[in-house]
Design goal:
Layout: H1 2-15, H2 46-53, E1 61-62, H3 63-69, E2 86-87, H4 89-111, H5 117-136, H6 142-158, E3 167-173, E4 180-185, H7 189-206, H8 220-223
Antiparallel strand pairs: 1-2, 3-4
Helix pairs in contact: 1-4, 4-5, 6-7
Length: about 230
């Protein structure tokens, strides 16, 4: 989370200094930032990011360097900037921008997947892209990477069969550092068998047998919400 906020602040600082060339070494002023995308990176399109902002971001930056630019201000109460930590600023800033585009595109693909089999293939590729982007942020784990690679191998091997692929895509999911992988699979006996093969291979390689959960839910839309009011 912290490197995303660093990237957002740096972009805002550069945008408030439009006269500086993209290769300028002069530090941006973070005291007079504009709120790019209304304060949310996901409101910036991938093309806007690539054309206007990406070149201004460092690949990485220490927390100490950022704090010196921001005069020790940090605009998020849930995180803290660790001075000695090296943050992958560019990758972590790009992730929510491209992820929002991937999510919206996937929504459109799934809406007509029943009439267009190629839509599932494209949706699966978006999942693989999402997983790779998340990993570039320094998140994820060896276990989830292994599961995604096994899913990709299963998909590749099944493409030569007459029935086509049973696995279309995979990505890390869950809160925080993940720990779970979401698979987009064919709703058939062949799809179930493919998932079992992935689980068995993971078990053989690691000694751990993952649990498999099938289906999805409406989440908060179905269950409703609970509001908690703290004393005082």
């Amino acid at each position: 989370m912290a490197p995303v906020l660093l990237g957002r602040a740096l972009q805002a600082g550069w945008s408030s200094r439009p006269g500086l060339p993209s290769n300028s070494k002069q530090a941006p002023s973070l005291k007079t930032c504009v709120r790019l995308g209304g304060g949310y990176l996901c409101n910036i399109t991938p093309s806007q990011f690539a054309q206007l902002h990406e070149s201004h971001l460092p690949a990485s930056m220490t927390g100490a360097d950022f704090l010196s630019l921001s005069q020790h201000e940090h605009w998020d109460e849930a995180t803290q900037v660790v001075p000695e930590q090296q943050y992958p600023v560019a990758a972590a800033t790009a992730h929510p921008i491209f992820e929002n585009f991937r999510v919206r595109t996937m929504q459109q693909l799934l809406s007509h997947a029943g009439s267009d089999p190629e839509a599932l293939v494209q949706a699966g590729e978006l999942m693989f892209q999402s997983h790779a982007s998340y990993g570039r942020c320094g998140l994820g784990s060896e276990g989830t990477d292994r599961l995604v690679n096994l899913a990709r191998d299963e998909m590749t091997n099944s493409q030569t069969s007459s029935s086509g692929p049973c696995i279309y895509g995979a990505k890390i999911t869950g809160g925080g550092s993940g720990g779970a992988v979401c698979l987009l699979a064919q709703d058939s006996l062949a799809g179930q068998a493919a998932i079992e093969r992935i689980r068995d291979k993971y078990h053989h390689q690691t000694g751990y047998k993952p649990d498999v959960f099938v289906g999805s839910s409406g989440g908060a839309l179905r269950q409703g919400i609970v509001r908690l009011k703290l004393p005082g």
